[in-house]
Amino acid sequence: MNRFKQTQIASIFGVLGNLFLLIIKSIIGLMTNSQAMIADSVNSASDIASSLLTFVGNKIASKPRDEDHHLGHGKAEYIYSLLISILIIGVALNLFKDAFLSFFSSPNFTFTGWYIVVCLVTILVKLGLYLYTNSIYKKYHNVLVLANSKDHRNDMIITTFTLISGILMSFGIYIIDSFVGLGISLVILLSGIKIFKESYDVLMDKAMNKEMEKEVLEIIAKYDEVKNIQHFNATPVGYLYQVSFSIFVDGNLTTYESHEIANKLEKEISKLDNIYLTIIHVNPI
Length: 285
What we know:
With 285 residues, the protein is mainly α. Helices cover 68% and strands 11% of the residues. The protein starts with a helix and ends with a strand.
């Protein structure tokens, strides 16, 4: 099953899982008047939107290159992950405001055993979704899946604190509810900022990391005919990179011989998992 199909399935599971959690957390949040549980349910609502954006973004990114988009539609992944990050940041700021205001209101918490059950169910569902999406990300390195995977992981942490909050409030320690609400909002905020930065870097054509660059340069170094290399450039094309550079070879070689060196290099470099296209300019010494 290809990269885009797997991402579509992951996003569908995300929508269904989070819709289920939104319903049960909203019911318990309203029943108990817990700020932490209400914040957790709002987080599930944002997760549904994130999964829907993942589905749409992945659908666009899967389209092949055409006359108007010579390098394909891969950057749609990063445009939509940027939208997801903005949504996450907005939710976090709103939750932070509500949690802060709850410090100045009278506690009205009503404990029920269902509070504990909902938290445990949420943790188990999110653990399953995290393991699933994380395995897909490791295989395909899709930034949209990464954003969803981190979301599921953060939700496990968030709900664990929601669970602790409910247990402590059942013993009359009500102020913990507001603190947990603030903590949840900060975790969500930091996650959103990180996803925003990762997406922004690609959309601004940030160069490939040093490890990837070293891998390409090591292939070039194997060719004794290449005397020098200049103008190395790596531009992101979705989750892949277009690499271009100039090589300097012996000026006594024929045009055919020098370009054969470049052709062999292009084929070998293009076999790397993270390379979309390799362009080499040949100069004589």
